[in-house]
Amino acid sequence: MQRLLVTGGCGFIGSNFIRHCLTTRDDVEITNVDKLTYAGNLENLADLEGNPRLQFRRGDICDRDFVQAALAESAPDAVLNFAAESHVDRSILDSGPFVQTNVTGTQVLLDACREAEIGRFLQVSTDEVYGSLGAEGLFTEQTPLAPNSPYSASKAAADMLVRSYVHTFEFPAIITRCSNNYGPYQFPEKLIPLFISNALNDRPLPVYGKGENVRDWIHVIDHCRGIEAALQRGQVGEVYNFGGKCELQNIDLTRTLLRLLDKPESLIRYVTDRPGHDLRYAIDCSKAERQLGWSPQVDFATGLQETIDWYRDNAEWVERIRSGEYQTYYDRQYGGRLGGT
Question: Which CATH number does the domain housing residue 237 bear?
């Protein structure tokens, strides 16, 4: 039995990773550590309640005593760090929480995992650390880091800490970087779930600038499969990029969503562009394909329709987030019985 400790497992990608592992494997046990900040929703894992192979501990990765206790109790074979503040707009308003969680939190985890002699550490990062591309070219693992937002700068700093621990302490870490994810359970401030839920309710869809920014879209399950492949077959000290090979301008994605939802383009509202908005991201994932035997499997058209269907079928989930009711789920369901603080 492989024992994993997952930080940030109540977020979008972390919860999908936990579900993926527990539903595709019977030889894994997971301890999920999450602070349950605004983007951490324990309801994301409600369908796995009662699973004996999943334990939850509420706590902050910046709290050294908590992290040490969680590691001692769960005795994991590997730690996967999904925990992060991740919304660029919020980082522009206040970068403090991003530096605290993404940098200090990673440093605390690294030190605690060194002390506990954890066998493998996987840092889940982002392609945004590479900065912005022009009309041509792709990000490779050798692309210099050039972050352009406080969020991406905090993730780049965390990556550099992980790299330094590998080289200074021979720490068994791997870094993964991924393009834009989409799929179920994504917090509805992100583009695709925001636009789906707004369109379903005939609300405006706010498009930055002229909508010319380009993103490479990958289904969250393809990303989770990549993380699992890196965990199992990746080489210590290496970086692995994951992308969906699906580049779209934001305006084209917006129009596609409206067409699939049978809503008029008159719902589009062009708004003032985000400060420092990166023009284009695109990933070269050939290294992961060669070394890990991984490749994206979910066709974008199929994945997008399934995502639309999920948000349509789970409108109450979205509404509970928008109203803030989701933040009471932990206390209502568990009353602190899952090792919370």
Answer: 3.40.50.720
